[in-house]
Amino acid sequence: MQFGIFTIGDVTADPTTGRTPTEAERIKGAIAMAKKAEEVGLDVFATGEHHNPPFVAPANPPVLLANIAAQTQRLVLSTSTTLITTNDPVRIAEDYAYLQHLADGRVDLMMGRGNTGPVYPWFGKDIRDGIPLAIENYALLRRLWTEENVTWEGKYRSPLQSFTSTPRPLDGIPPFVWHGSIRSPEIAEQAAYYGDGFFHNNIFWPMSHTKQMVQLYRRRFEHYGHGSADQAIVGLGGQVFMRPNSQDAVREFRPYFDNAPVYGHGPSLEEFMRQTPLTVGSPQQVIDRYMTMRDHVGDYQRQLFLIDHAGLPLELALEQIEILGTEVVPVLRKEQDALRPAHVPEAPTHESLLAAQREDVLDTDDAFEGATL
Amino acid sequence: MTERTLTVVSAGLRQPSSTRLLADRLAAATVQALQEQQVEVAEQVVEVRDHAHAVTDHLLTGFPSGDLQAALDDVVRADGLIVVSPIFSASYSGLFKSFFDVLDPDSLTGKPVLLGATGGTARHSLALEHALRPMFSYLRAVVVPTAVYAASEDWGVGEGSGSGLVSRIDRAAGELAELMVQRPALAPADPFADPTPFAQLLGD
Fold it and tell me: Mutate which of A193, A211, A217, A259 to test chain B, going by most B C-beta atoms within 10 A?
């Protein structure tokens, strides 16, 4: 099972000091968090993509991830999410294939639609076309990655005549794709249709809802013949803040919670902890809580934690990554892996996809030799 | 014997609440009118005040907490609705509106609805027509022609047959019962049970 962190890069004032980090601090902070994640043994770093304040830091995931790739050796670099609606699929195809080469294949990505109406027109699009854009653009993206010579015509971009997206995906293997959606069954259906991963970012949602979305994806994954429902590739979000003593964690995190951009000034911290995966307490409480996720969604492949939003300063975020990597994830990894049946796969990586491709080639060779004998 | 479900949404704030009093009277008259047509009625009451915090949290977080989901389900799954708001500043109360704001906008389509409102003076009675009725028309609910307003003076009048309020309640309840018998609301589609196949999404 993969564990990691994801960031939305919000530039938010620290409510305890009133200090707002600069964009430069936030961007460099993302790199520091990624390096810390690798150092303490986490598997994945994912960055969001936004084009409106206060989410300034990760406007350009491929650039950020390329920089991180140069400073890490093992970490899988991903997105949370790449905007499949407002980005040109041609640029997505080229940028992330390029990133694959720079990162020696340590790249996957998560497609998302983005959430606010005003963003779409900045890129010549309309939010009312959100789902059709996600469907058409992704269908084109797949062709650009798997076919060298693409002639294509669709609704939302200019036609392509004999177009070759460059560079080609590393080893001819496109990055593994997750589809992220919080509430659209169409996106769970899309992920299932292609046999791609499905990530439910449940950090602001009750488990009952997450369960519905994941069950739909699993059922349809099996329907489309990619394997049994429990072999579908599922990822979940999470949100934690930890101190050895849970009362200290609550006291320290409460001002960040109460003033958070998304849910601040709404439910109490205690209510939100009951309703969503937010866990503020001791490392053991986080372990206990996140061990229950599989009871709701089945054995899953990727768990990402949000730890740096709502004005939490970088030093605290780095401390939290350290606690995750040293005290929480080793236990979760061991216990989850022990419980997972053998036929439930790990999340695909470049290495595993490459190995599978070689196996296919060998199988074909065997068949050929058999025929000539 | 046919069966129908009736959900009453009452957005009064005080205890005892004249809004709830009107809601109960409308409900009782509707149940009676349905029973006269051999229809069995299952009735639920949603006191919006009980969900005031959850409604605000839902506006901020985007999901219903606690018992709010069950209350919203009661509204969406009802064959008929009675909705009653106090009139504040010439319109429905903010809490009443917020409760309907967190419902899926398509979830009341075709649903028979009886409108009621209360206030201190009869001079606000047309708020039913210029505020509540357009709101429910927008939601594509089927609103019965008679909307019932009760002012302080209406409660002062006895239960005699001459009472205007009683006859208005009976007329409105009869209209709602008639609609509920004729066209039971459609069960809401469950997008999780029956997803649009991807080939169809690709073809669109």
Answer: A193
